[in-house]
UniProtKB/TrEMBL annotation:
Upper classification of the organism: Bacteria, Bacillati, Actinomycetota, Actinomycetes, Streptosporangiales
UniProt keyword list: DNA-binding, Transcription, Transcription regulation
Protein name in the entry: LysR family transcriptional regulator
Annotated ranges, domain HTH lysR-type: 1-58
Superkingdom of the source species: Bacteria
InterPro entries recorded: LysR_HTH_N, LysR_subst-bd, WH-like_DNA-bd_sf, WH_DNA-bd_sf
Alphabetical list of Gene3D superfamilies matching this protein: Periplasmic binding protein-like II, Winged helix-like DNA-binding domain superfamily/Winged helix DNA-binding domain
Keyword Methyltransferase: no
PROSITE patterns: HTH_LYSR
Record-stated family: Belongs to the LysR transcriptional regulatory family.
Keyword Membrane: no
Species the sequence originates in: Actinoallomurus liliacearum
Pfam families per the UniProt record, alphabetical: HTH_1, LysR_substrate
């Protein structure tokens, strides 16, 4: 099986016509037909129904198509990696980010770009910690910033910093909010456990240690929306990282709980790490995370 055979097959499958597929590939139609016929003989499958004016995939062709696409994506990644090695550090670094990193992420990327000026960093922001870890393990992300990450096969986790969580409450309840017990009657807004199980469980433990089980409240997606809406209205409270908050509402107050609660942030990378660029990002992240490493 040859790479070009897979490329020709996918092109014809997506375009639905041998001639137009050949034009898109900048080759002649007989070459496309010949190579796909050779692929069918090697596989022992009929991939296309040629009995109609417009060709269609057979059932076997439909089943084989996602495998061909996945193989080509892997080949494309290998070619990009080889190009990076040949050019000595240029390339693309795919990084999973998260809301609320703010200035810390800016500082990390500034340090990284200072040592890797020819590298393009592609950021993908998502709140799902398990999703980012799975993407790192599968090779779809080169690294990801995650909070309180669970152990994941094929992924190494490097601790970067601990961030204090602040109790965010309606201002009228700020005077006593350091004691979480006083909030037992108020629903708690937070992200679903499947998005960030480590932080969810950390907050649950803090509430249980204060003597109560938190009442379910609104789903936390964008912190500022929840603060400006249900928290300001007095309908709920939340525990949020200090770096993700803006003190721009007289109706909401931020209080340090007693005892303090900290959430850890780490950089997840493939294990073993084979790309020098990933090691460079980790070095930059650790340097920017040191005391005094960011303004």
């Amino acid at each position: 099986m040859e790479i070009r055979q897979l490329r020709y097959f996918v092109a014809v499958a997506e375009i639905g016509h041998f001639g137009r597929a050949a034009e898109s590939l900048h080759i002649v139609q007989p070459a496309v037909s010949k190579q796909i016929a050779a692929l069918e003989r090697e596989l022992g499958l009929m991939l296309f129904d040629r009995s109609r004016r417009q060709i269609r995939l057979t059932a076997d062709g439909e089943a084989f198509l996602p495998h061909a696409r996945r193989a080509l994506r892997g080949i494309d990644r290998a070619e990009k990696a080889a190009a990076e090695l040949a050019t000595g550090g240029a390339g693309i670094l795919r990084v999973g980010s998260a809301r609320g990193l703010g200035r810390r992420l800016e500082d990390i990327l500034a340090v990284f770009r200072g040592t890797h000026p020819n590298v393009t960093v592609e950021l993908t922001t998502t709140s799902s910690v398990p999703g980012k870890l799975a993407a790192v393990a599968a090779g779809d992300l080169d690294a990801a910033f995650v909070s309180v990450p669970p152990r994941t096969p094929g992924v190494a986790v490097h601790h970067l910093w601990d961030e204090p969580l602040l109790v965010t409450v309606p201002t009228r309840r700020a005077a006593t909010a350091a004691d979480l017990t006083t909030l037992a009657d108020l629903p708690l807004a937070r992200a679903p456990r499947e998005e960030d199980p480590g932080t969810f469980d950390l907050i649950t433990r803090a509430c249980l240690a204060a003597g109560f089980t938190p009442r379910p409240g609104p789903t936390l997606t964008y912190a500022q929306d929840v603060l400006a809406g249900p928290v300001a209205a007095g309908d709920c409270w939340a525990l949020l990282p200090s770096g993700a908050l803006r003190a721009d509402s007289a109706a909401v107050s931020f209080v340090v709980p007693t005892p303090p609660i900290h959430v850890s942030t780490a950089l997840a990378v493939p294990h073993p790490t084979r790309r020098a660029l990933v090691a460079g990002l980790l070095t930059a992240a650790k340097a920017a995370s040191l005391p005094g490493g960011h303004p």
